[in-house]
């Protein structure tokens, strides 16, 4: 499970051992989530127009914290010994006067215990503990995802590989499939899409409540904003690669302005992320990492007719970092 320390003290020194938590094979959950924004994130003009006006200027974007949970087992020589070990940990936590460091093989977070530490005595001196933490400050990375170049040997007009000193010359290219976020393919984002919800739904109407004394009142209204959830798997060869994927997604969704989503046989959707994202089912096996992510998008507009900008000969035009241009 890894060596877990709280305020630079190993939790095992209290006779407490981290155990597998829920659908993950780690003891910790929630640590990789992207926090939700705080403050006002949009303005609703009521029945004057559908949807909302998003607040996506750099000065308007602020983030809250994340909830982290640690599952443990207390192994006491007896029921009373288990109780004493639990209370020793509680006494240590009571003495904290600010944020403390929670650290393990998977990272470091500045946290406070912000809820009930739920304990359940089982038998033979064994007690289950779930420790809730709040990490109120989550740094937002800035390195954005890009489409990776694929390098192949250059060939002449007859398809013969060009050699210099008997060595091939390689050229980089991007085989863009047309689908992703901000012109970056889902694969380059590190996402294996499993579903994108509610694209075919009409959003809920805004409040139509009126006062009527003789009959039920009614009123036709405009609609609220459409919310779409991207569900995807993340499969990476190492934990460092997994963290890289998550950090680049945080950078993308915390960037000022609107993002746009393209999907096969779908509208181009302008959106922003105000609720962050959740990572679940994280499992590390022989170095490889598999996890699942749910990203809630708040849609601002949808364009049924859109195209990828190309040259007259049909070649996709890309920006200097390999992103496509939508028209």
Describe this structure in words.
The protein is mainly beta. It folds into two domains: 5-135, Elongation Factor Tu (Ef-tu), domain 3 (Beta Barrel), CATH 2.40.30; 150-303, Elongation Factor Tu (Ef-tu), domain 3 (Beta Barrel), CATH 2.40.30. It contains three helices and 23 strands. The chain has helices at 79-94, 186-189, 239-254, and strands at 5-6, 9-10, 16-18, 28-29, 42-43, 53-54, 66-75, 100-104, 107-113, 118-123, 126-135, 150-153, 163-164, 167-168, 170-173, 180-181, 184-185, 192-196, 227-236, 259-262, 268-272, 277-285, 288-303. The strands form five sheets. Strands 1, 2, 3, 4, 7, 8, 9, 10 and 11 form a nine-stranded antiparallel beta sheet that branches. Strand 13 (163-164) and strand 14 form a beta hairpin. It is flat. 25% of the residues are buried. The model has no long low-confidence stretch (mean pLDDT 88).
């Amino acid at each position: 499970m890894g060596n877990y320390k709280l305020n630079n003290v190993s939790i095992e020194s209290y006779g407490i051992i981290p155990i597998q938590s829920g659908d993950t094979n780690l003891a910790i959950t929630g640590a990789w989530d992207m926090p939700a924004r705080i403050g006002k994130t949009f303005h609703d003009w009521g029945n004057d127009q559908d949807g909302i006006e998003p607040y996506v200027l750099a000065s308007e974007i602020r983030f809250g914290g994340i909830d982290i949970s640690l599952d443990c087992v207390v192994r006491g020589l007896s029921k009373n010994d288990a109780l004493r070990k639990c209370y020793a940990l509680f006494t240590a936590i009571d003495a904290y006067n600010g944020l403390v460091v929670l650290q393990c093989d998977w990272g470091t977070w500045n946290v406070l215990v912000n809820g009930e530490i739920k304990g359940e005595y089982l038998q033979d001196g064994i007690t289950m503990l779930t420790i809730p933490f709040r990490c109120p400050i989550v740094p937002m990375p800035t390195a954005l995802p890009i489409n990776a170049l694929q390098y192949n040997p250059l060939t002449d007009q007859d398809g013969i590989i060009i050699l210099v000193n008997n060595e091939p010359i390689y050229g980089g290219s991007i085989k863009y499939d047309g689908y992703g976020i901000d012109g970056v393919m889902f694969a380059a984002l590190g996402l294996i899409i499993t579903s994108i919800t509610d694209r075919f739904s009409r959003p809920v109407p805004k409040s139509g409540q009126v006062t009527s004394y003789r009959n039920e009142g009614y009123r036709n209204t405009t609609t609220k904003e459409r919310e779409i959830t991207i569900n995807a798997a993340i499969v990476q060869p190492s934990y460092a690669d997994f963290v890289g994927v998550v950090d680049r997604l945080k950078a993308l969704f915390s960037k000022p302005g609107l993002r746009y989503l393209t999907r096969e046989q779908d509208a181009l959707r302008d959106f922003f992320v105000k609720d962050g994202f959740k990572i679940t089912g994280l499992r590390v096996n022989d170095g490889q990492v598999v996890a699942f992510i749910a990203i809630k998008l708040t849609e601002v507009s949808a364009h049924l007719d859109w195209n990828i900008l190309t040259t007259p000969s049909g070649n996709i035009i890309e920006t200097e970092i390999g992103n496509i241009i939508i028209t």
